[in-house]
Amino acid sequence: MFSTNIYINKLLKSFDLILKHTIDNRDDTIILKLVDQLANALKDNHLYDTVTNYIRTNVLNNHLELTDKDAEQQLFCLNLLKCIISIKYNPSFESQVQELILGYLSEDFYSIDSTILCSLVDLITQIQELDEQIRLKIFNLDSVVHFLHPNNKSVYVRNSFKLLLIKHLHEPAMVKLVKSMPEPIKLHNLDIFHTSGLLLTNLESKWELIDLHSIKHYSYMLSYDVESEQVLCQIADNFELHGHYDLAQKFLIYTYESFKGSKDILLKKFFAPFKRRKSQLDPIFKYYIHNLKTFIKFNLINFNMSDHVSISDVFYLLKSLNLKLKFKKSILECLIDYFEIKKNSENNFLSDLNEGIESILKFKLDGELSIELLKLCTLESTQIIEKPLYAQVNEREWH
Asked: How far separated are the first and last CA of the chain, in Å rounded?
């Protein structure tokens, strides 16, 4: 079907419309979809040869004109070239494509529109035999630092460049280049090292350079490297002491997943916020609720909460003046989610929780809990009560 003359003629006519006329910005997604649809069609040899010859004649033989065209036209050509190269290896065609690429790599090529630059890097990644001039332009320390710097506004450009680097990291010169990057750039891009298997030494001392972009790979790499869970807990403490509660909690989640030794201390550390007393709880629970839900979701069969959280811990948080109502509500939601799955294996914990609530309700309490919160607290040992709507709760201490 794809090799018929009618189809080819319509296809080439659409190319002409794109390359020779100004394109409305609203049409750029349609143009890129056309390239996506061609990826399968170009497996037909006749169509592949026809399209390749068209692009060679109308784009590659006049490649210096491409950078002067509208952004949408440039994106179309770059993405179509990537599509063609990915179908089969064609040395002469690839050589002409590299001449076009060099036309983009001027001294200030960093300033190219980020969308075009991303497509350009993707195209370079598809090249099998990369020209030495292109290597010198993009595989130098200044270029690598620019692309991988955390202040690079385009995450798409950064991620595309990472894929290009990883593709070439089997080359000793590239390994040397990547290892020569400044320490903050390395630690912000730990996925390059983790994915490629490159080792970094003394990671436990570099926790101060870790952020939310790198915490997952940092946690995994460190877990493979250390033998003691005490070392991991100390790093979590370091994050927390500097007010990085989200990093500390995510670090514990990821190290729990990847550490091969005993994990009892890691579990104890992760559930420690339940045992906080006489301190401001909001900064901790601001992140802990989401991280607790994530931990429960992916590790439910591996632990019993009753081994690390007591009934008095739960009640203290529910009555504390140092914890906002919205966080109390979220704690109870987490407990319901937990008991809906674990009510059989945690029946004693659930029963003790209900008994504790019942004993409190025997007294007339100043600022008694709203009936909605009461329903949520009263988790029956055999059936979970439906999650209610929440009303305002007086947060004065229980006596």
From this structure: 81
